[in-house]
């Protein structure tokens, strides 16, 4: 069982930055691929970024490439999402998710993940 707790959301003006953190419980954090997803009102939950469990391979949605950076610190059981050049369309609830994997893949579908955090609101004003 893994418990995930996100933090770092808030209100920011367009062009600003935020860093989200996701702290995981348990002693096997390095065995999990980690992902960030977001869900805006009336829309489905969508993949934002993912990072593999050990080699640190990353994958991003086209809409955030070049602006967002995902990273992880396995010693701290934490995954981060640095968000720069934020746009109003980035407004959503952001969730982190964990998937136990043997290899270094990065799932992009919500149904592929086993554990989810409670979400943190990010609001970007124009």
Describe the structure.
A hairpin with a 6-residue loop joins strand 4 and strand 5. It is globular and about 40 Å long. The protein has no helices and eleven strands. The protein is mainly beta and 126 residues long. The strands form two sheets. Strands 2, 4, 5, 6, 9, 10 and 11 form a seven-stranded mixed beta sheet that branches. Strands 1-3-8-7 form a four-stranded antiparallel beta sheet, with no helix packed on it.
Ordered list of secondary-structure elements with their pairings:
Blueprint: E1 4-7, E2 10-13, E3 18-24, E4 32-39, E5 46-51, E6 58-60, E7 68-73, E8 78-83, E9 92-100, E10 115-116, E11 120-125
Parallel strand pairs: 2-11
Antiparallel strand pairs: 1-3, 3-8, 4-5, 4-9, 5-6, 7-8, 9-10, 9-11
In short:
By secondary structure, this protein is mostly beta strands. The protein has strands at 4-7, 10-13, 18-24, 32-39, 46-51, 58-60, 68-73, 78-83, 92-100, 115-116, 120-125.
Distinctive features:
mainly beta; 48% strand; four-stranded antiparallel sheet; globular; seven-stranded mixed sheet; 0% helix; 126 residues
Uncertain parts:
none
Helix and strand pattern: EEEEEEEEEEE
Strand proportion, as a percent range, falls in over 45%
Largest sheet: 7 strands, mixed
Q: Helical proportion?
A: under 10%
Q: Round the Cα radius of gyration to an integer and report it.
A: 13 Å
Number of helices: 0
Instruction: Give the rounded overall mean pLDDT.
Output: 96
Q: Which secondary-structure class do the elements indicate? A: mainly beta
Distance between the termini: 40 Å
